Structure formats: structure tokens, C-alpha cells
Request: fold
Amino acid sequence: MRYRGVIFDLDGVICYTDRYHYLAWKQIADREGIYFDEVINNRLRGVSRMQSLETILERAPRTYTDEEKHAMAEEKNQIYRSLLTRMSPADLPDDVKQILGILKKAGVRIAIGSSSRNTKLILKQIGLEDVFDAVSDGTNITHSKPDPEVFEKAAGMLHLPPGDCLVVEDAQAGVEAAFRGGFASAGVGEAANASKVTYPMESVRDLADIVL
Ligand code: B16
Ligand code: MG
Reply:
């Protein structure tokens, strides 16, 4: 096999929580009279909650205090978490389920590398809480993507060097993080068009040919 470990991003790769991030931020932005659309939302992929808010506030007609920003981020998270409660194992896409099974059967070690502080809740909702060999997420890092920390921690948990791991991403920031950490990357969605992506993919089904 070409890679002994695969580190999966969560939002936009394992499941489509990106839709819920969008709906939650949209609710806040509309109330504040700030223009926000799906194109701007693409810039929030992979980056931290506070960085996402700063990006949205670029269009704000007024400035906000730090206290107001923290309150808005907290409110967005409450809306987002209530949307997550609607998720179930039916929200795990079939192609993702299949590729995880194929990789595990082949003896490839698999991990999560996500910026989200809600990772554990999401994995539980979609029935994947006991599937990954390691989970590195927003709760164990100090720097969000495009910093490589979340992937370096994941590789450390798998006891593998970056050169033995492939990062799977949907975000430009995630591909950049992989590159900075010395990881090869496979990209879906907008990450497939990132200049530094190693393997552009149509879907995660392509991973079997890339990894094995
Ligand atoms: P939370 P990923 C990222 O997840 C999302 O893509 C990004 O939009 C979000 O701001 C970030 O998690 C933090 O999420 O507010 O739940 O802590 O793509 O790294 O799995
Ligand atoms: Mg993502």
C-alpha cells in the first residue's frame, strides 16, 4: 500500500455538516444585516469558528466588540448544535461508509483531522464513534487550519510520520495545512482545484486506487 494512514477531514468530507454551518451563520448574518452567501461560506471551510466570524464580519456595516463577537459565535454554535441533533446514521454517505470499510479491511489506519470542536457529537450522531483509530479535532489544537497542527497530532496518534499519511480534504485551508505539514493530500469539492493538492478526486471512492 502507498499510505499506511489516512487522515480524514470531517465537515464536507465524511458528512455534509457544511450545510448546517451555512444555515446557522446565515441566521446570524441576516439578523445583523450582513450580506452572506454560499460563496463566502466556502471561505469558512476548515477554519476556526472565530476566524469564520471574522470573515463574515468583513461585510458588516459596523464594528463589533470582542464581547459581542464571542456572544455571536456562541449563538451560532447553539443553532448549529441543534441542527446536528437531526443527524442520524442515514446521514453517513454510502461512498464514505464503503471506503472506510475497504481501508480498514486492508489494514490502513484511519484518523479524523478536523477543526471542529463538535467532532465527537457529529461522529456519535452518524454512528462512527468507534470506527477511527484516532480523533484529532478542535479540542486538542491551539492553531486551526491552515496550520498543520491538527494533522500532525493525528499522525502522532497513529504513530506514523507525515510521509506515511494521506490527508483527505474539501477545503483550501486544509490542503494548505497538509502541504505545510509535509503530508500528501487528496481533495474533493473546491479542494480538488487547490494548487497544492496532490490528488484531485471526483469522490472519496477514488481513495482505494490512491491509497492501496
Ligand atoms: P466548530 P472541518 C471545520 O470543520 C468547518 O469546516 C469550519 O467551517 C468550522 O468553522 C470549523 O470546523 C470549526 O467548527 O464551530 O464546530 O468548532 O472541515 O475541519 O472538519
Ligand atoms: Mg472540511
The longest helix spans residues 66-84.
